[in-house]
Amino acid sequence: MSAGTRRLPAVERVTFGQAKGWNCIWCGKLLTTGAVSAGRIDEAGARGLSFEVFACPDCGVRGRS
Ligand SMILES: [Zn+2]
Q1: In a domain, 50, yes or no
Q2: Residue 4 lies in a domain
Q3: Would residue 1 count as lying in a domain?
Q4: In a domain, 65, yes or no
Q5: Tens digit of pLDDT for each residue in 9-39?
Q6: What distance in angstroms lies between residue 2's CA and the mean position of ligand 1's atoms?
């Protein structure tokens, strides 16, 4: 399963660090190098706005669970 097909968490469950791209959207690990885009999450109550979230290589490249 690729990063693109995994369901992203609801915006209410995204931490500040995850929203900023500092932490992996799946496991919460601090991202250093090799982070991959995991997609975009719509902001709550902000129509048409979304932010990009990232995954660490372990979670993002192969979707290892
Ligand atoms: Zn991860």
Answers
A1: yes
A2: no
A3: no
A4: no
A5: 999 999 999 999 999 999 999 999 999 999 9
A6: 13
What confidence category does residue 64 fall into, taking pLDDT thresholds of 50, 70 and 90?
very low
Residues 20/52, Cβ–Cβ less than 8 Å: no
Closest CA relative to residue 10, chosen from 32, 25, 29, 28: 25
CA of 37 to the centre of ligand 1 (A): 11
Ligand 1 mean position, distance from CA 34 (Å): 11
Contact indicator for 19, 39 with CB cutoff of 8 Å: no
Indicate the pTM of the whole model.
0.78
CA 12 / ligand 1 centre spacing (Å): 19
Q: Which pLDDT band holds residue 4 (cuts at 50, 70, 90)?
A: low
Query: How many independent structural domains does the chain possess?
Result: 1
Give me ligand 1 centre to Cα 54, in Å: 9
